[in-house]
Amino acid sequence: MITNVSVRPYRPGTVCTTSVARRKVRRKPLAISPLKHLQRPLAVILIAAVVLVAGVSQLFSWQIQRAQKTLQQVQQQRKVLDDSHMILLAKRAQLTSESHIQALAGARLELYVPSQGQVHKM
Protein backbone atom coordinates (compact mmCIF):
# COMPACT_ATOMS: atom_id res chain seq x y z
CA MET A 1 0.00 0.00 0.00
CA ILE A 2 1.01 3.56 -0.72
CA THR A 3 1.18 5.87 2.18
CA ASN A 4 -0.29 9.39 2.40
CA VAL A 5 -2.95 8.79 -0.27
CA SER A 6 -6.53 9.06 0.76
CA VAL A 7 -8.54 6.36 -0.86
CA ARG A 8 -12.14 5.70 -0.13
CA PRO A 9 -14.01 2.61 -0.98
CA TYR A 10 -16.46 2.80 -3.90
CA ARG A 11 -20.07 3.16 -2.91
CA PRO A 12 -22.67 3.22 -5.69
CA GLY A 13 -25.06 6.20 -5.65
CA THR A 14 -22.69 8.64 -3.98
CA VAL A 15 -22.23 12.04 -5.56
CA CYS A 16 -18.83 13.17 -6.55
CA THR A 17 -17.92 16.20 -4.46
CA THR A 18 -14.75 17.22 -6.19
CA SER A 19 -14.10 20.79 -7.18
CA VAL A 20 -14.65 19.95 -10.88
CA ALA A 21 -18.19 18.81 -10.15
CA ARG A 22 -18.83 21.92 -8.09
CA ARG A 23 -17.64 24.15 -10.93
CA LYS A 24 -20.00 22.45 -13.35
CA VAL A 25 -22.94 22.98 -11.06
CA ARG A 26 -22.08 26.61 -10.40
CA ARG A 27 -21.57 27.50 -14.05
CA LYS A 28 -24.57 29.30 -15.56
CA PRO A 29 -25.61 28.75 -19.14
CA LEU A 30 -24.28 31.42 -21.48
CA ALA A 31 -27.60 31.87 -23.30
CA ILE A 32 -29.42 33.28 -20.27
CA SER A 33 -26.63 35.49 -19.01
CA PRO A 34 -26.65 38.08 -21.87
CA LEU A 35 -30.42 38.39 -21.69
CA LYS A 36 -30.24 39.43 -18.06
CA HIS A 37 -27.97 42.28 -19.10
CA LEU A 38 -30.45 43.37 -21.75
CA GLN A 39 -33.65 43.08 -19.75
CA ARG A 40 -33.58 46.62 -18.42
CA PRO A 41 -32.65 48.35 -21.73
CA LEU A 42 -35.21 46.24 -23.58
CA ALA A 43 -37.88 47.18 -21.06
CA VAL A 44 -36.99 50.87 -21.41
CA ILE A 45 -37.10 50.63 -25.20
CA LEU A 46 -40.41 48.78 -25.08
CA ILE A 47 -41.98 51.34 -22.74
CA ALA A 48 -40.66 54.20 -24.89
CA ALA A 49 -42.10 52.55 -28.00
CA VAL A 50 -45.50 52.13 -26.34
CA VAL A 51 -45.51 55.77 -25.23
CA LEU A 52 -44.44 56.89 -28.71
CA VAL A 53 -47.16 54.85 -30.40
CA ALA A 54 -49.76 56.18 -27.97
CA GLY A 55 -48.62 59.76 -28.62
CA VAL A 56 -48.69 59.34 -32.39
CA SER A 57 -52.14 57.75 -32.27
CA GLN A 58 -53.39 60.63 -30.09
CA LEU A 59 -51.96 63.12 -32.59
CA PHE A 60 -53.72 61.35 -35.45
CA SER A 61 -56.94 61.30 -33.42
CA TRP A 62 -56.74 65.08 -32.91
CA GLN A 63 -56.12 65.63 -36.61
CA ILE A 64 -59.08 63.43 -37.53
CA GLN A 65 -61.35 65.29 -35.12
CA ARG A 66 -60.21 68.64 -36.54
CA ALA A 67 -60.83 67.38 -40.09
CA GLN A 68 -64.31 66.14 -39.11
CA LYS A 69 -65.15 69.52 -37.59
CA THR A 70 -63.97 71.32 -40.72
CA LEU A 71 -65.93 68.90 -42.91
CA GLN A 72 -69.11 69.53 -40.91
CA GLN A 73 -68.66 73.30 -41.27
CA VAL A 74 -68.10 72.99 -45.02
CA GLN A 75 -71.17 70.75 -45.37
CA GLN A 76 -73.25 73.25 -43.42
CA GLN A 77 -72.04 76.11 -45.66
CA ARG A 78 -72.80 74.02 -48.75
CA LYS A 79 -76.32 73.35 -47.50
CA VAL A 80 -76.90 77.08 -46.94
CA LEU A 81 -75.50 77.87 -50.38
CA ASP A 82 -77.61 75.16 -52.01
CA ASP A 83 -80.73 76.56 -50.34
CA SER A 84 -79.93 80.10 -51.49
CA HIS A 85 -79.12 78.76 -54.98
CA MET A 86 -82.53 77.09 -55.19
CA ILE A 87 -84.23 80.31 -54.06
CA LEU A 88 -82.32 82.29 -56.70
CA LEU A 89 -83.19 79.77 -59.42
CA ALA A 90 -86.88 80.04 -58.50
CA LYS A 91 -86.63 83.84 -58.50
CA ARG A 92 -84.94 83.83 -61.92
CA ALA A 93 -87.59 81.50 -63.30
CA GLN A 94 -90.28 83.85 -62.00
CA LEU A 95 -88.58 86.97 -63.38
CA THR A 96 -87.97 85.45 -66.82
CA SER A 97 -91.46 84.01 -67.16
CA GLU A 98 -93.52 85.41 -70.02
CA SER A 99 -96.43 86.48 -67.82
CA HIS A 100 -94.16 88.47 -65.49
CA ILE A 101 -92.39 90.21 -68.40
CA GLN A 102 -95.75 91.13 -69.99
CA ALA A 103 -97.05 92.48 -66.68
CA LEU A 104 -93.88 94.49 -66.05
CA ALA A 105 -93.81 95.89 -69.62
CA GLY A 106 -97.43 96.90 -69.34
CA ALA A 107 -96.98 98.60 -65.96
CA ARG A 108 -93.72 100.48 -66.66
CA LEU A 109 -93.65 101.03 -70.40
CA GLU A 110 -97.31 100.67 -71.30
CA LEU A 111 -96.48 97.93 -73.76
CA TYR A 112 -99.09 95.26 -74.32
CA VAL A 113 -99.34 92.16 -76.45
CA PRO A 114 -101.00 93.11 -79.72
CA SER A 115 -104.41 91.69 -80.41
CA GLN A 116 -105.35 89.74 -83.53
CA GLY A 117 -106.20 92.66 -85.78
CA GLN A 118 -103.36 94.98 -84.76
CA VAL A 119 -100.50 93.13 -86.43
CA HIS A 120 -100.05 93.83 -90.17
CA LYS A 121 -97.68 91.68 -92.14
CA MET A 122 -96.25 92.78 -95.40
Can you characterise this structure?
It is built from three helices and no strands. By secondary structure, the chain is mainly α. The chain has a domain at 30-108. The N and C termini lie far apart (164 Å). 0% of the residues are buried. The mean pLDDT is 84.
Arithmetic mean of pLDDT: 84
The number of distinct helices, counting runs of at least 4 residues, comes to: 3
Shape: rod-shaped
Number of strands: 0
Helix content estimate? 55-70%
How far apart are the termini? 164 Å
Major beta-sheet overview: none
- Contiguous low-pLDDT stretches (5 residues minimum) are none
Structural class comes to: mainly alpha
- Tell me the series of helices and strands, N- to C-terminal: HHH
**Cα-atom radius of gyration:** 51 Å
β-strand amount: under 5%
